[in-house]
Amino acid sequence: MSLNRFVRQLNPIQENKTNYVNIVKTFVIESSLSKSQLEKPAGKGPNSGTPRIEIFAKKIADGEDHILNDGNTIKITEITMNGEVYGKNDMDKLIKDFDDVESIKITNPETAWSKVAKTPEYGGEGGGQKISTSTQELMTAAIVLGGKKYDSTEITVDDAKKIIEESKNQWTNIVGASGKESLLNQFTDNWYDLATAVSSANAILSIIPKPTKVFWTGQSWDEEIAPFNPAIGNIKDYNSSDIVVVGGNRYYGFSLKKKKKSKDADPTLINKPITGSKSLLKEFIDDKDMQTIERAKNLFFIRMVAAYKKTTNYSAIKKLTERQFKKEIAKIPNSFANDMLAGRGASGRKNIFWQAVNKVLTKDSKDMMIAFMKLIFKVDLQPILDESGQFDFYLLTGIGQKKGDAIGVEPAEVKDLPQTVDALTKIFKEDNIKLGKTVDNKGKVKRLPWEYEKGEKAPAKLFYTIYNGKIPLLNLEIRYKGSKTAEPQFQATATPIFKNLMSGK
Predict the structure, then answer these.
(1) Which residues on neighbouring strands pair with residue 445, listed in sequence order?
(2) How many domains does the chain have?
(3) Are residues 117 and 225 in the same domain?
(4) Among 54, 261, 354, 366, which is 20 to 30 Å from 320 by CA?
(5) Structural domain harbouring 445
(6) Do residues 328 and 320 make contact, with C-beta atoms less than 8 angstroms apart?
(7) Model-level pTM?
(8) Which of the two residues, 97 and 481, has the higher pLDDT score?
(9) In 3D, which of 56, 102, 105 has the Cα closest to residue 79?
(10) Residues 107 and 140 occupy one common structural domain
(11) Are 395 and 420 in contact (CB under 8 A)?
(12) Taking a C-beta distance cutoff of 8 angstroms, is the pair 133, 217 a contact?
């Protein structure tokens, strides 16, 4: 009996409770949740733009039912990921740890992923297209052009739909958006990006009550604003403003980030490769050290390919073209690659790539870390902007999410460049910058992979913290995110102490 016939037979059953069979019929029955589906955002539906893992975790935390493809329901109370058990009170941790997911199972009640329906809240009916990071930037630009601030306590879903439609009408007024019209489709029912865009726009309109023009820099810097984005060092787009707003005779640049709640971890301040042609490290280390790291990286991946193919013929692997080599790496499962990165695979051999990076970073860390912080916070941009007398730069994090039948918006976090530069200038004068170990909020030191004992599960990434004396300023991670054929990324977040210093507290 086909599933569709089975569903048709069940339809006549009358009960006073929700008819889940009819609900199942409203979306593609063959569509189920899975690890790969949870790694994507909902591409449509009521939670459009929201990472599916966050939708999934919230349903578990709230004790909500999950609908199965046969029309029945279950209440999920336990997930096992990478061998670790997460109960309904551990969902925030599950979301945080999901970046490193290798395996994930529903273990209470024990249920196969193929049985769990991808309902409309997950973007069912073919949802799941990738939401461009540019969408929130463009939504912010459009709302700013509308010139209206929104009371966060009064935004219903119906009101949100009106805001989105009004935003679409401003599209042609955004300088630099031409050619990206396809992103207009990602405005529709995109509550997460809308919430953070409203939060951002409210903050911008408080700074510039009567904007006259908005530039989006995602494709290029318009010739009118190009002088405010000079190349500094080897970095072409040193000014990281995502949108530039004109008010009176001044220009205001905003580097936009987003998060759901003010208490959530901050988004990374930087996400740049440490190796390859666009290496961030090239700005801070000499050619000899850079070559050392690149050689170690190449040898590490040669060993990884050899270990996976169960061969010791390194010379044959070395003869592969770059394209062939990347294809071989792409064949390697993430679990195998992560074991190698953590030093758990290939007979527990230590990761020579990570060790080479560590040696270079810790050799003469003070000057390097000062240069790194100057880059992140655009310190060297300030003299140029001061000379022009026309441009102000801000770091801005919009905060918001869909809450039930309303759109919840919190005040954005805003840091202007002079304030940040002033805080950093005082810190640099103390001449006590250093790179050290990261300590978590429970006082536990995060070890590097080779510092773990045999049999312990080591991480596949590196952790560091930049200190001013004993005061932690920035937490750093070096990690692969996604494909191992790409370059590992530098990520950085400001500590609460440093955020207070930048705010003048």
Answers:
(1) 439
(2) 3
(3) no
(4) 354
(5) 270-376+430-505
(6) yes
(7) 0.78
(8) 97
(9) 105
(10) no
(11) yes
(12) no
